[in-house]
């Protein structure tokens, strides 16, 4: 049974966070966050830090699960924070290299290419973790939905309107019904073949600029001008 959030918080606040005997406890809690679509960066980092301190405890499968989970936190830089705890040797792992490529594509806003690459390397989603002496499944629930939320965060920064034919592949090939539901959930409007992701009335607003100049300051200015 996974420890409670309070128990894990207490563990992370103590020196036991560096105790390798606590690794199973941390990984078990990480698995719980993966399955119930919650998130705890401190747990992710604590696991990787223990692997760094105790190389004999390192597990590539758990590491890939932690990286995939952190990838879902974009636009936060958690993926890079986790990556910095890995040695060059660990980074050479094929699975980790695939995750790094997925991160590069998302960071570069190459969203259609991201989904294509994910389709070709779908095995990265089949995550598992090591607890005790056994690897157990640890699917990252809601991963693709979180990626779409990141894309939805980026799109309005770049576009005011965007063709459906471009947006749909950027969101992973959503069909018309799912795209309509996604657009509605984000306050976007689909008209014909175009998606309006920004309300023009919200973008163009008049602004009143008020300058407060006291009579005393104005008097000094007038005296100074008279002397000159």
Q: What can you see in these coordinates?
A:
Helix content is 57%, strand content 7%. It is mainly alpha-helical. The strands form two sheets. A three-stranded antiparallel beta sheet has the order 3-5-4. It has a two-stranded antiparallel sheet with strand order 1-2. A hairpin with a 2-residue loop joins strand 4 and strand 5 (194-196).
Q: Span between N and C termini?
A: 83 Å
**Main sheet characteristics:** 3 strands, antiparallel
Give the H and E element order.
HHHHHHHHEEHEHHEEHH
Radius of gyration using CA atoms only: 25 Å
SSE class: mainly alpha
Query: Which whole number gives the mean pLDDT?
Result: 90
**Amount of beta strand:** 5-15%
In helices, the fraction of residues equals 55-70%
Provide the low-confidence segments as ranges.
Answer: none
Number of helical stretches of at least 4 residues: 13
Shape: elongated
What is the strand arrangement across the widest sheet? 3-5-4
Q: Count all strands and give the number.
A: 5
SSE inventory with pairings:
Elements: H1 5-12, H2 23-35, H3 41-53, H4 60-71, H5 78-83, H6 88-91, H7 94-107, H8 111-120, E1 128-131, E2 134-137, H9 143-158, E3 161-163, H10 164-170, H11 176-185, E4 189-191, E5 194-196, H12 200-203, H13 215-227
Antiparallel strand pairs: 1-2, 3-5, 4-5
Helix pairs in contact: 2-3, 3-4, 4-7
């Amino acid at each position: 049974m996974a420890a409670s959030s309070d128990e894990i918080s207490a563990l992370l606040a103590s020196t036991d966070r560096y105790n390798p005997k606590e690794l199973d406890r941390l990984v078990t809690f990480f698995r719980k966050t993966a399955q119930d679509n919650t998130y705890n960066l401190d747990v992710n980092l604590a696991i990787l830090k223990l692997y760094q301190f105790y190389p004999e405890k390192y597990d590539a499968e758990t590491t890939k699960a932690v990286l995939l989970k952190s990838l879902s936190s974009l636009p936060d830089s958690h993926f890079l924070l986790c990556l910095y705890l890995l040695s060059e040797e660990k980074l050479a792992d094929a699975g980790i290299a695939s995750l790094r490529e997925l991160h590069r594509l998302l960071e570069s806003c190459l969203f259609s290419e991201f989904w294509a690459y994910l389709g070709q390397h779908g095995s990265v989603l089949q995550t598992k973790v090591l607890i005790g002496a056994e690897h157990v499944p640890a699917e990252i629930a809601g991963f693709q939905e979180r990626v779409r939320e990141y894309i939805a965060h980026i799109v309005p920064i770049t576009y005011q309107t965007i063709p459906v034919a471009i947006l749909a592949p950027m969101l992973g090939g959503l069909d018309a019904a799912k795209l309509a539901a996604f657009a509605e959930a984000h306050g976007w409007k689909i008209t014909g073949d175009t998606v309006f992701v920004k309300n023009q009335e919200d973008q163009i607003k008049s602004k009143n600029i008020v300058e407060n100049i006291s009579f005393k300051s104005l008097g000094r200015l007038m005296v100074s001008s008279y002397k000159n």
